[in-house]
Design a protein that fits this description.
Blueprint: E1 2-3, E2 6-7, E3 13-15, E4 21-23, E5 27-29, E6 32-33, E7 40-42, E8 48-50, E9 55-57, E10 64-65, H1 72-81, E11 107-113, E12 123-128, E13 131-132, E14 146-152, E15 166-167, E16 171-179
């Protein structure tokens, strides 16, 4: 277990040039980097392997940066070297800079707005330019008393981007929610301060 550590780079583990790191099992959790690689920082990704039994969670860095198919060289290395079973929520791949350092250029961003009062700050993920929206799927968010419906281009109605949509400029998507107790109710719908009173018994309009 590697947990609760911090550093400028490689909050949990820092690997020097030519170094080899094999994470076979256990957890890498709650580590923080002021710059890059909250869980692990490596100068050579070909020297880092992560097995299926390894779990990464709660790691942080200066920003989230997510590998996609557009970075073909790094993606090929990732597929051959990394197969960890879990990553810091809600990120889908290990090269996300929170868990394993990752940098590429040129880039753009996707911002996930949780879209409710007192929600966590929006999650901003930097990705390779011209990635597709389907490459950036994060895990579903949770909100007490509500079910998550969809990420939408509009904050009040369902206009979900397609997985094939190219991201060539900063994109913002908003979470849409449905009340668990009252399915179909718009989230945070205003309450009528003067609801109509029921008719007394025997009174007919």
């Amino acid at each position: 277990m590697v947990s609760d550590n911090s550093a400028q780079n490689g909050g949990g583990i820092w690997s020097a040039p030519g170094g080899v790191v094999n994470v076979l099992s256990g957890t890498v959790s709650n580590n923080a980097a002021a710059a890059d690689g909250g869980g692990i920082f490596t100068t050579e990704h070909t020297g880092l392997s992560v097995s299926q039994g390894a779990v990464f969670s709660g790691n942080k860095a200066s920003e989230a940066r997510l590998l996609t198919h557009m970075d073909t060289t790094s993606f090929a290395i990732y597929q051959s070297k990394v197969s960890g079973s879990a990553w810091t929520t809600p990120l889908p791949l290990g090269y996300n800079n929170y868990d394993i350092n990752y940098t590429t250029a040129p880039t753009t961003t996707v911002t996930y707005d949780y879209n409710y009062p007192d929600a966590p700050a929006p999650l901003i993920i930097r990705i390779p330019f011209q990635s597709r929206y389907g490459d950036v799927h994060i895990s579903k968010p949770a909100r007490p008393g509500f079910s998550f419906l969809e990420w939408s281009l509009d904050s009040s109605r369902n206009t979900s981007p397609s997985d094939d949509m190219l991201i060539e400029s900063p994109l913002v998507v908003h979470a849409l929610w449905e009340s668990i107790e009252s399915p179909g109710q718009q989230p945070d719908a205003p309450v009528d301060p003067n609801p109509p009173l029921p008719n007394p018994p025997g009174f007919v309009l």
